[in-house]
Write a structure and sequence with these properties.
Shape: globular
Low-confidence stretches: none
Protein name: EAL domain-containing protein
Bound molecules: ligand C2E, magnesium ion
Strand content: 15-25%
Number of strands: 10
Keywords: Membrane, Transmembrane, Transmembrane helix
Structural class: alpha/beta
Order of helices and strands: HEEEHHEHHEHHEHEHEHEEHH
Organism: Agaribacter flavus
Amino acid sequence: NFAKTEQSRIRYYVHGEDEAYLARLQMLEELKDAINNDDGELFFNYQPKLDLSENKVNKAEALIRWINKNGEFVNPEVFIGLAEQSGLIVTLTRWVITKVIEQLADWQTQGHIINVSINLSAQDIQHPDFVDFLLQQIALFKVSASQITLELTERDLVENEELVVERLTYLKSLDFDVSVDDYGIGQSSLSKLKRLPIDELKIDKSFIMKLDQSETDQDIVSSTIALGHKLGLRVVAEGVENKESLQLLREFDCNLVQGYFVSRPLKAKEFIDWYLSYEIPLVSEYKMD
Ligand code: C2E
Ligand code: MG
Ligand code: MG
Ligand code: MG
């Protein structure tokens, strides 16, 4: 009897795994179709990055969105993860790069010079054609390298470090900016980061979201900002959800802030409307309270 129960449990388990596997395969096929068909299922939201040092907003992060054929929102963490595991990420990132640069060119013809952050994966930066492709796209759309920030996580940066350092050094010499995304949850120390050719440190939102309520987070964040500055880096806080946290970040001398309190990620058109109507005096209002 026991054996029988175990057996059916095992069969059930295997069956469950099978289903999950098939669902992932199906999602992957749907994602490939979405990229190839290019019919609006995949698009971007742009989240403003408020520059506290210079009191301006001329930077944004491009965040991919997928509303599939059935009208369902698919979490980017899920499909990006799947794309990374399957190797589809290289194709997806090329599509991302083209679309974002096309958007930058469009804004440029309207007279708006925006710097956009693009999220990359380890496989992208290590791919032999990455730099050529990027250069080809900016040339095609007549966009300047200085308008593009490349975001990589600590993990992406230390994998195959020698190659990555060489590539980023070259990209930086061409005027691209490099940002370390989700900083603080990976393994690398600031001394390791010191050797990397980077411009920006983006403190992970897990340290920022409840900054106003946690003294520990405040200690971590203020010292990270100070150390980042010592290394000559610009520091960004992501996940700023309230006024109190923004005020603290200002006191800590954080250079840029990004988060729901400043703005949610917006559709391209909404982003430009927001950008145009954003009034700088509003920034000093944060300071008054
Ligand atoms: P990320 O690069 O760290 O992006 C920041 C995430 O935090 C975004 O989630 C954003 O919507 C969210 N966020 C912004 N402000 C707040 C806030 O105040 N509170 C909270 N709780 N969250 C906030 P999203 O858009 O779901 O993206 C998740 C991740 O997916 C990104 O994390 C990035 O790693 C990846 N991703 C997004 N777009 C792309 C892309 O085009 N290519 C690649 N390779 N990865 C992407
Ligand atoms: Mg990012
Ligand atoms: Mg990330
Ligand atoms: Mg992040």
